[in-house]
Design a protein that fits this description.
Layout (H helix, E strand, L loop, with lengths): L7 E5 L3 E6 L2 E10 L2 E10 L2 E10 L10 E4 L4 E6 L15 H4 L3 E3 L7 H13 L13 H9 L9 H4 L1
Parallel strand pairs: 1-8
Antiparallel strand pairs: 1-2, 2-7, 3-4, 4-5, 6-7
Length: 162
């Protein structure tokens, strides 16, 4: 049986990269270098067990001491801390996509545009989801109406449309 790259997907944030190795019941070893992540192991894909190995020659550098992985029943999750926080990488690895397209894809469940990450951070800092800080929009009149059970809505649609 030939050793081949495992099926993988990846995503990123400004400060880290996420790689998911999509093998079930995997027994593996994962290693981290300054510009490399290595994976080797046995696992099941589509019910068939196989032996897999890959070296991710990363586009940029990571901090090996601050990287981690965990093995679940369904996959291996790898998190690499980027050496430089900042712009998103154009791609995960140095190899051209025509070499990696059969086994490396985008993790759409974790995917986030760089601008979306900034908006989410701003909304979190402002304390109110993705809507900014809207807590101050409730006025005393609104609170009084709510307390008294007053309904300010029109009686029917004709009151609105004329």
């Amino acid at each position: 049986m030939a050793v081949k790259p495992p099926p993988c997907v990846w995503a990123q944030r400004k400060d880290r990269v996420f790689v998911t190795v999509e093998l079930m019941e995997c027994k593996c070893e994962v290693g981290f270098g300054e510009q490399k992540i290595t994976f080797s192991g046995k696992g099941k894909k589509g019910g068939e067990e196989g032996e897999y190995k890959v070296e991710f020659d990363l586009l940029e550098k990571i901090v090996p001491e601050e990287c981690a992985f965990r093995v679940t029943d369904r996959c291996v999750e790898i998190v690499g801390k980027k050496k430089e926080v900042g712009p998103y990488w154009d791609k995960l690895v140095q190899q051209p996509s025509k070499v990696t397209k059969s086994w490396l894809g985008t993790n759409w469940a974790l995917y986030c545009e760089e601008e979306d990450e900034d908006e989410a951070a701003n909304a979190k800092a402002e304390g109110f989801g993705g809507y900014g800080n809207k807590a101050n929009l409730i006025t005393e009149a609104d609170e009084d109406s709510a307390d008294e059970g007053v309904d300010d809505r029109p009686a029917d649609i004709s009151d609105i449309t004329g």
